[in-house]
């Protein structure tokens, strides 16, 4: 592993040298021709460390035991190791895609990660301690400008249209109101509230399209009502998922599929891949042993029933927490986030899964186009 990391850093180092002499781009067209870039948006499932650089009061994971498995140090990822986009980058033969806010990150030809733990599609979600989706879009537009300056319009356009835009967004828009008993649950119907979330996602997709993006990767929403944090909202003693979530998530997922069917017929050149994260996640939670896990309901790290309290690391107000012996046995690392092993399974299915888990194509096909 260390060897691989070393090779990777040498590789990235050489690429940065080429970047200084922009002339080299002309001499090495393979750099952008044969590697579709990867731009990443959304929440903690995909945040590779952006929140390290903002005033994210609780939305940070830059302390032990986060990162212990693969990186052997905390990176800001809400996981013991790698996230889904880290595996996707590997399968697409790209280096790790760095967080946009990481100081000195000026190499954008492989893409960049804008995701921020706690973010949703709505500006109200996590307001004040996340990079909201609108701001992520703003960062992306600035990156597209930098690429145009560095590569020229034609090459920048080729890069942007070949790139894949990967999203994890929506969970927090539904989870936070329940966690805080927010009035939006009472002032809007399920249809109205989901309509706002989908409306804001639609707007962001359309603006990325305007800038030149064509290929979108969207896991739908997972079984968030069965994550450890959700089970703590169920009256004690009932071994159940938190069902009030379900109508929101199910409608959201129906609307996401419809949205992309519409976008594909309305906007020339749009291609997309949806991973049925919901079905796969339910399978993982209900039949963990099918995938080599021992535990699908209780998190590896945290406190309280199901370790559903987000206290992993003891740095978010609650100091006491439990850490499991063998993280490989668990589907969930903390109260709301999968372990690296789970992420690898999800990424593998998103990349090469068949029509029962991805549609209308998988990510491997999307990268090929
Ligand atoms: C960060 O957030 C805390 C808590 O909300 C606040 O007291 C502090 O002023 C914020 N700092 C900055 C630099 O915004
Ligand atoms: C984009 O760049 C412009 C000009 O450099 C800057 O004013 C603006 O704040 C940037 N937007 C974001 C979201 O970073
Ligand atoms: C949540 O808020 C509603 C209305 O604001 C209130 O009727 C209800 O009792 C609250 N529920 C809990 C669990 O606090
Ligand atoms: C986006 O969300 C806001 C609430 O944050 C809502 O008022 C607005 O109508 C939504 N936009 C669309 C296009 O649905
Ligand atoms: C998808 O199909 C494969 C084999 O074709 C099967 O092993 C797998 O369980 C299915 N996945 C789901 C989530 O139904
Ligand atoms: C951890 O769990 C995995 C999967 O159950 C198993 O293959 C491995 O041997 C375990 N490691 C230790 C140190 O017990």
Describe what you observe in this structure.
This protein is of the alpha/beta class and 369 residues long. Helix content is 42%, strand content 7%. It has helices spanning 2-20, 24-27, 30-33, 84-91, 133-151, 153-162, 171-180, 184-187, 190-211, 228-231, 246-266, 277-286, 340-352, 363-368, and strands at 38-42, 164-168, 215-219, 271-275, 301-302, 322-323, 358-360. Helix 5 (133-151) packs across helix 6. Residues 1-32 have low confidence and may be disordered. Bound molecules: 2-acetamido-2-deoxy-beta-D-glucopyranose (6 copies). One 2-acetamido-2-deoxy-beta-D-glucopyranose (NAG) binds next to helix 5.
Architecture per CATH nomenclature, i.e. the level-2 architecture: 3-Layer(aba) Sandwich
End-to-end CA span: 31 Å
Largest sheet: 5 strands, mixed
CATH class: Alpha Beta
- Compressed to H and E, one letter per element, the order equals HHHEHHHEHHHEHHEHEEHEH
**Cα radius of gyration in angstroms:** 20 Å
* Strand proportion: 5-15%
Please give a quick description of this structure.
The chain has 14 helices and seven strands. It is α/β, with parallel strands linked by helices and 369 residues long.
List keywords for this structure.
369 residues; alpha/beta; Rossmann fold; five-stranded mixed sheet; two-stranded antiparallel ribbon; 14 helices; 42% helix; globular; disordered N terminus; binds 2-acetamido-2-deoxy-beta-D-glucopyranose
């Amino acid at each position: 592993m260390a060897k691989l990391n070393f090779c990777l850093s040498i590789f990235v180092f050489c690429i940065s040298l080429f970047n200084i002499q922009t002339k080299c781009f002309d001499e090495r067209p393979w750099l952008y021709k044969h590697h579709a870039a990867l731009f990443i948006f959304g929440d903690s499932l995909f945040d590779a460390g952006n929140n390290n650089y903002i005033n994210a009061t609780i939305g940070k994971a830059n302390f032990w035991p986060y990162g212990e498995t693969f990186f052997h140090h905390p990176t800001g990822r809400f996981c013991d190791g790698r996230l889904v986009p880290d595996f996707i980058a590997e399968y697409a033969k790209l280096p790790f895609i760095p967080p946009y806010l990481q100081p000195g990150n000026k190499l954008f030809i492989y893409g960049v990660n804008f995701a921020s733990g706690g973010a949703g599609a709505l500006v109200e979600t996590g307001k004040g301690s996340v990079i909201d989706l609108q701001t992520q879009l703003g960062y992306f537009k600035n990156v597209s400008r930098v690429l145009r300056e560095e590569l020229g319009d034609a090459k920048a356009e080729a890069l942007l249209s070949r790139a894949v835009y990967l999203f994890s967004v929506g969970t927090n828009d539904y989870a936070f109101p329940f966690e805080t008993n927010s009035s939006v649950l009472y002032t809007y119907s399920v249809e109205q509230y989901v309509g706002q979330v989908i409306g804001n996602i639609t707007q962001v997709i359309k603006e990325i399209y305007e800038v030149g993006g064509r290929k979108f990767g969207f896991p739908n929403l997972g079984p968030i009502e069965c994550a450890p944090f959700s089970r703590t909202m169920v009256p004690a003693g009932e071994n159940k998922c938190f069902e009030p979530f379900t109508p929101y998530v199910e409608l959201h997922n129906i609307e996401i599929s419809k949205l992309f069917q519409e976008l594909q017929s309305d906007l020339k050149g749009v291609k997309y891949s949806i991973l049925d994260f919901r079905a796969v996640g339910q399978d993982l939670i209900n039949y963990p042993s099918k995938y080599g896990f021992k535990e699908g309901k209780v998190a590896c790290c945290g406190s309280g029933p199901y370790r559903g309290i987000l206290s992993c690391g003891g740095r978010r107000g609650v100091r006491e927490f439990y850490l499991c012996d063998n993280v490989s046995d668990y589907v969930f690392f903390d109260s709301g986030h999968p372990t690296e092993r789970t992420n690898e399974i999800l990424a593998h299915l998103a990349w090469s899964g068949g029509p029962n888990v991805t549609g209308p194509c998988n990510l491997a096909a999307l990268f090929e186009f």
